[in-house]
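Data availability (excerpt). The following record was deposited with the supplementary files.
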Amino acid sequence: MNINLADLSSTGVYHLMTQTIIPRPIAWVLSENKDETLNLAPFSYFNAVCSDPPLCMLSMGKKPDGNQKDTVTNLQVGAYCIVHIAQAHQADLVTATAATMAYGESEVSANNIPLSQHEEWPLKRISTCPIAYLCKVHSVQTIGNVDQHIIFVEALELYVDDNVGSEQGKRIVVDASKVDPLARLGASQYANLGEVFSKARPK
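Predicted structure:
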């Protein structure tokens, strides 16, 4: 099967890309609305793109009605956010926070998601996520024939739960099987890591 993507609608391309670029990590992004309520939404067009400075990329389309997503409204240059790595057992909760809600309605409150204050950070983080990147928006770009926002966030701090990470010599080692991250596939499909194995790099 050979598919000419130019023959498909943008929606058709989206469905094919999300079913074939798999698995994808999920950024569970907490940000602050203008009225100081909290917004929480998952995004699977997400990955690390730079280590110096430590940057992650979030890609966001529009709401089903064509309006700008609340996270885009909140994440202007200089704004703070927290990018959480959700666990596989949180799939139902992550999916619930993907629901379209009116701006200012908090997914955190609606789903009774527990938060913890992170020292002097301006936003609380989700208590039950073992990994959380505490970020500040570095830059924002708009691309595509239909506006797609590319938001680069700079990680200023990283929270790693002691149950999944440990200091080993000069490095901090994170046990992926203990993190058990939720991965995004196509359509309504998700996955966990399954078998975790190691391979030595060639010398």
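Summary of structural features: The first strand starts at residue 24 and ends at 25.
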